[in-house]
Structure formats: C-alpha cells, structure tokens
Amino acid sequence: MLLIPCPWCGARDEKEFENGGPARVPRPDPTAMTDEAWVDYLLIRPSHPGALRERWWHVHGCGQWFELWRDTVTHDFLDAPDER
Amino acid sequence: MNAERRRLPAGGRIDRGRRLRFSFDGRELTGCGGDTLASALLANGVTLTGRSFKYHRPRGIQGAGFEEPATLVQLEGADDATNLPVTRVALHDGLVARSVNCWPSASFDLGGVAQRFSALLPAGFYYKTFMWPNWHWYEPFIRRAAGLGRAPRDARKLRYETRFDHCDVLVVGAGPAGLMAALAAGASGARVLLVDDDHSPGGRLLGDNAIIDGAPAATWVDGAVARLDAMDNVLRLADATAWAYHEHNLVLVTERSPEGPVFQRTRRVRARRVVLATGAIERPLVFDNNDLPGVMLASAVRVYVNRYAVRPGDRAVVFTNNDSAYATALDLLTAGADVAAVVDVRSAAPGALTERVRRAGIDVLAGAQVTTAHGGRRLAGVLLSPPGGVSQRIDCDLLCVSGGWNPAVHLFSQARGELRFDAVSSAFVPGDSAQANACAGSSNGTSGLADCLHEGSEAGMRAARDAGFDGSVLEVPPVKDDGPAAPLEPCWHVETPAGNGKAFVDIQNDVTLQDLELARREGYGAVEHVKRYTTAGMGVDQGKTGNVNVIGALAQRAGESLETVGTTTFRPPYVPVEFGAIAGQRPGPEYLPYRHTPMTGWHKAHGAVMYEAGARWRRPGYYPQPGETFQQAVNRESEAVREAVGMYDGSPLGKFEIKGRDAVALLELVYTNNWHNLAVGTGRYGLMLTDTGLILDDGVTFRLGGHRYLMSTSTANAGEIYRHLEQILQVERPGWQVLVTPVTAQWANATVCGPLARDVLTATGTDIDLDAADFPFMHMREGQVAGLPARVYRVSFTGELSFEVNVPARHGLALWEALMAAGEPFGITPVGSEASHVLRVEKGFLSLGHEVDGTADPCDLGLGWVMSRRKPDFIGKRAVDIRRNRGGPRRELVGLLPENHAELMIEGAPITPGGRKCASEGFVSACVWSVVRRRTVALGLLRNGRARIGEWVHVRMLDRVVRAQVTQPVFHDPEGRWLRG
Ligand SMILES: [Zn+2]
User: Fold this and answer.
1) Which of its termini does chain A have fewer beta carbons within 10 Å around, N or C?
2) Cβ contact (<8 Å) for B879 and A1?
C-alpha cells in the first residue's frame, strides 16, 4: 500500500487513488499515422523494472489526474529526470 | 487426581492466589492467573495434547510462543476460535478447549489408523495418489481427514475494529532491544508506538534467569515499562502482533485483547521509522521420532520453568549444538528435575559452561548425538551414538533440543530487506534494509544480552533522529554475562541408520527427511518447489521453527551453501489473523454499502424482491403478488407495459451534467456520432468506444441549453465513464473548458411506459403539453408534474410510449406515489428489472454485460449506423477501421428462436457446429419468455450471424443440445411505431 505524494494534497494513502497506467504522449492524430504505428500506440506500454512515469487519479481526494515518476522495484517516488 | 502436580512451589510470574478452572478435551483442570493454556496443561502433567495433521501421530507441546508447531487448539463457547497455537491462548476461568485434528480426543483418536497407511502419503501425495480418475472424488474425504479446526459458528456477535494510525517511530517487540529502543526514541519526544505479541512485556527476559543492574531482569523490565507508560508520547500495546509490512512503512498490527468493548482491533500504522526488535526463534534438531510428546525446545522449557513455574519433566536430557541450552540444564536442576546428560554435537564442548554444568553433577557428552527418541504416547528414552562408540540408551521423559537460533526476519524480509547467511551463527540474518527500518537485538543476529540492550538503544536513537527529533543514546544498564559464546556447529539433521522411525523437518505438516529426499529424487530441488511439493513450511505456523532445517538438508544433499539454496519468500501474515480483524466494523453488506433510491422503502413495502442493479444500487427485480410464481410475476409486469401501463424506478441510471464552451467537442470525441447539430431540448442515442474500438457504453444525451448537456450511462458503468471523461479533460485536452458533474444521486426518476402512459401523466396533473406533435420522441420538457418541478424526457428502453419523469431526489417518493395514485384507474403496474429485461430483449436493445461483453464492436452489434462517416476522428474510430479493413469473420448479433417454444436457454450457453463438443461459434446472450410472441426468444452472438438468418444452429446446454433458428434480432415492433407514438 503506497503513500502517494499528490501534488495538490500531499502524501495520501493509495486507497484514495486509481492508477492510470504508464504515462503516454498526448493522444496523437490517428489520421496522420500508419496502421502499425497506431496499433503500437494503442497496445504497447512501457513495462520495465525501474523508473516509470505513471498516471494517477486522486478520485477520493481532489479529483485531479497527475503524473509521477516511480521506481517499480523499490516503489520510491522519484524526482522527474531533467531530460524528460 | 493430583492437581497441578508439576507446578513449582515458588517463583514464576504467575498468580497462585487466582485459581482458574478450564476444560481440555473434556477433562476439568485448573491453572493460575498468568498461565497460558500450554503452561497450565504442562502444570497438570498433560503431555499428549494433539494428533498430527497427516499421520495422526501423538503430539505434545514443543514451544512457548507463536512458533509452536505441534499443538493447535479449538476454543469453544464464547471464545469460539480455531487453529490457535496452544502456547498463545491466555488462560481464563471457564475456558473450554479441544485439540484439533483428532476425534474424539487426543488420547483415543480413531484417525490414528492413518499411521498404518503412511506409505500411501508420501511427498506430493496430493498429486499422485488422488488424481485418478478425478480429484473431486477424494476431496471430501481428504478435507475431513486432513482439515484442521472448524471455523467459528457465530463470529458476527464479536466486535472488530480497524483504524489508521501514524507515528514517528514504531518499535516491534518489547524484549530487551525493543524496550531500550522505545526508551531512547521516547526520550527524544518522538511519537512512539511499541507493540509486542506477548501478553507481558520482556521478551526472552521472561524466560531467562538473567541479572540486569544487579537484580533479576524482571525488575528492570518492570521499571522500563513504568517509564514508558509515564511518557505521553509513547503508546504501548501488549498482545498485539505486527503481522504485515507493506510499502512505505505501512505495518499492520492486530491487538487481540484491546481495552474496552472491542474484541480485536487492527491498526494500519504508517510509521516514519521502524525498529524491528522481533527476537529469534530456536531451531529444533532433526532425528528419528523427534515429534514425540516430551521433546521440547530448550528455550521453551526455560520459559515454562522460569516464567510459569512448571517443571515439564522429571528426568531430562539436553541435546544441543550451541551454548544456549546449557542454561536449560541448570534451570531444570534448580526446578528439582534430574538432568541425565547434556548431549553436545560439538566435539569440543565449551570449557567454562561445561565446568559449571559438570560441577552441578550433570554429565556432558561431547561429540555425541541423539539418534532416536523412544516411547509410545510420550517420551520414554533416547538412543545416543557417541563418537566411535556403541549406541547407548538413556531413560528420560523430557528431551530439550536446541539447533541454534533463527533471527525473526519475517517482517524485515516482507519489507524487501535483503537476507544473508551468517556462517558463525548458521542462520539467515538481516542485510541491507529496503525501507526506513533497522533491526536490533537477536532479530539482527546479535546474541549477548548486553549487546542486545546496546543495539536497541542505538537503533531507537537513530530512528528518532531520522524522524527529525533530537535523539541521544541512553545509558545501558550493566549485565551479568557468561562471556563470549563458543561457536555453534551446524546440525541440520542427525545421520540415522535406516530405521522405521520418522525424522520430521516440519512437525505441523508431517513432513519428514524422507519426503525431502523423495522430492529431490523426483526432480524438485529448488527450495520453492520443495516447499510446494512436500508442503514443508505451509502449515499455520509457516515453518517458523523448521524451515531453516529444510534449507540446510537441501543444501547438504545438493552440496551447496545455504545462501545458494536461499529461503522461501516471507509473506504476510506473520501469524494467523482472523478475517474479522481485517474487515473491521463492516461485516457483510456494510463492507461496501448499498445505494438506495428515494423509492426503496416503497418498493420493499410492496413486496419487491430487490436486486443489485450495478454499482451497488439496489433496484426491484420483480413484485410477486401472493401465490404468484416468478415467471407469472414477470409476465404480468411485462404485459402491463405492452398492453396498458407500467412504471419503473430508473433512478440508478448514471447521469452527468456536462457544461462549458467545449462541451460539444467532448461529446464529438467520446461518442461515435455527430453532436454539433443537436437542437436544445432534444436528445440523441450515443455509443462510446474504447480507443481499441470496442463498445464501452451507450446511452442518451440531451442538450439542456447552449453549452449544457445531460449524459446518461449504464448504471454499472457510471464510475468508469466518469474516469474516462475526466482523464480526457485533464490529461488529453487540458485546454478545453468543460466541467463534468456526476448527478446520478441528485435526481429521482420514475419512468411511465406503455400505451396508456400519456393518460396517466395527464391524470397526475402537469403543465407540459404531452401531445405527440408538441412533445415528440427524443425531446425533453421542463415543467410541473404532480405539483413538483420536473424534467420529462421522451426516451424508451422498452419499445413503448415512455415518459421518464425526473425530479430532485427529495421529491422522488412523492412523485412515485402521485403517479401510482393517478395511474390506478389505468391499471398502472410497478415493474422490476426482470420485466425490463424481457421488454428490451423483445426489442433487441443492447445490454451491458450481455451483448456488450467487452469484445464487441459497433458493427458486430448492427450499430454501424451510429458511427459518423463525416468525423475524421473519435475515440475508437481508427481501431474499428483497422479491424474492418482486415476482414475475417466476426461474431454478430442475431435473434434465436428455440425449436421448442417453451425452451429457456441458459445465458452464456455456447453455440457449436452440430452441437458437438468443440470450439464454439457463438453464444446465447439473453433468453426470455416473450409476452408478445407467446414463446421464448433469445439474442446471441454468432459467427457471420447476419448472413445466416433462417439457418438452424445448435446450442449446448448442460445435459442436452437445443436446436434454434437464426432470426433478425428484434421480436416486437421492428418499425418503432409504438415508441414514437
Ligand atoms: Zn489530491
């Protein structure tokens, strides 16, 4: 059970949140993409041990969606790397 | 009978003035205040206390705490509980206990015949003996024979509680290290929570004869506890076990005997820092018949003698591979027992200790081993093999064993801390922490008392500092010490000549050395495989005493180090926890409360059978009248809607108000059809897809005003749709100005439907012009109905003329009653979800969870017309296009008419070619008795279904195959004249 630092409410128990999966680029314009590229966008998600940028929804709190970096091995929440 | 004949005349931390009566396996016995059930049984000389899980061998008491592997008890009456280690049951007056796993009693056990058939129960016996022809044939017998206790019958009367808790420093364990840590952290002003699983604080000091600060250790414990209890910033909990360690220092603690009216309380503690002072658990030694009653852990014997003033035997042998058990020999002597010998595996017995023991008149046999224990229902003697010598027998009724100490690393490892194997103590000890915690004392692999006290003080100070307080190291009191201990010599099991005895590595689950050997021969060498194949370590005790011996035996056979073999994964719970203590005050439906509409009371008063409509909403299923069957009630309600007028409670339907400049842009993105041209006051059916092109939900959205819309969704899906919309608005289109407000519970909805619906509304009184020309289908009006402010929508989920009357929730019941009263002359009938289901199947309308099953796209369900060709993009468009362009057969929505007109096909029944047992080509999604067709009708999804109208297909039921003809998926009013009327 994680302790999640909501940027609006501070550290709150995981029970108050829903996970939105790995963060992605904003939904691109599908008409400008090939079938293969679009299928990749829909189905391929980053899944690796280590730092991952994720979406969370503080549904039982402020109601805000936000993104956080988390180490999926240690569960530590990380500062956003500079280059990303 | 000689009551408590093994009780010592003096000493111990018991209250001899408080006599407690209790019963065990039907025998009436007595004990003292401060006793556990185990100490009281031993005081009464009861040594045979249970039968083993698989072989029903006689078992006694081996330990003194949660590690107890041998005896589990069932409590009766008000204490009703099961599978409790006998050592962890606090004695009270009137306690009634039974040993589990034997019938009728431990000493006369009919299951004992299982011993004769032990050849049938080797390692992996579940997988071998009972698989042919079918496991289910054997399961009932195995469950009865092998099951442990029985679940409590009436647990709901007990009051459980859960709560959140926060602290700066959580200290787990109130032994010497834990007490010092709590004192040091408490002195800094940090908020400290100290939890200990024993009834009394002190840990191992309760069982040892240690001297601290020139006085018995108990005096120091009492002083330390008094100082802690005087601090406002320290909370101390006894009889409270920390049993789970989750991410970010969330530790679950269950209090088994909290003050006040609560039976058990679980605290979900979020701690800044955690100090784990959980102690160490003694390992037994493995030799033939090491499970006989009378074989006990040496440390447990010390606890019974020193804490409970009980002498567990009259003539003892001590069998050890380390120094700690020598104290047991001396304590037994003080308690008046005869100690025949100390048998030490090590060829060089420790000098000073040996001298002390020998001076006391006890023989020390160095380099010797106990190879076999003898006895029937209890130990009668042991067989020794001295080095190079011949076997020698010693008569005894108590054998105290010590194979070394395992630090209790369970919580540390649950917290993902690394373990390493320490060659000096031959044990797995904590390595690097993975969370904000530290181990102190014997849980850290430290053995000397002075060192434990010092480590505790240090850990408490550091924890306080790391939590932001000004901690300092506390002075540690002087301790009388035996000096450094001599090294232990690992002994994972005794080498025994092939005999017919059994040497147990897991006493509770009846797993023997021979089972490990068999598993290895059959290819199960990895420790996790061996655990599952032999069930070693899978009992209620989770192998607290035996697991490391299993690892040692495996390592020895494989010629590897214990570190290479590794441990099995430590998982919560550390000790058994009752479900009630996890659920807390919210048993049954209160755990996830139901949602009720304002009309629920009326429905119940009128005999409704209530269903769950999704998202925890309660809704009437049907309203049976006296003498009516289920089908008669559903038919009556359905016919009322088709022929006269019915009314249903539509309040649970999901509703969202959507407003803002970009509201229409949101609708255009999430729905498949066009919204820019929707006129104010009108509505449109919309279909929502996932980006992978599958149907997410459907519903009607009305335009209330310029930039204001009201969206309706399936009842069960409202939460999911809210998430969908919010994610789009906040993540994908943060620039859009749109607000989405869930308003489901703000509105009550009574839907009047049927040919006479207009007459009922007129009779109820309304200022809205109901004429079809002025108020057509898919329009809405605001006005008064029965004197209440209302929004009326002309939508239809039944295929009949229908008015959905919405009023603010507080007026819901008044509206409902007014409509019922005005509708009486027209025969208005309240209608439940069963009739609604019939009506929608007759019309071929779709339902979430039936036809919309998460795999269908709009074209599959004949909804291609709802997809805009004009819009370049909407969510799901591209995926549907890609899927369609690829071609290939799809399952398509069809109607099905069973050959036998009365045949009700089960929902979900597969359609297969020729009805053969093979891959399905579709399934029945809904089947009902149609009141308009006077026969059963069904909907289904069938491969290439639309091209197969008129064909006969075969539906596989459980016991037969049903022939059905494929039809269009609509059975009533295909032109929709009635619903527009
Ligand atoms: Zn928040």
Assistant:
1) C
2) no
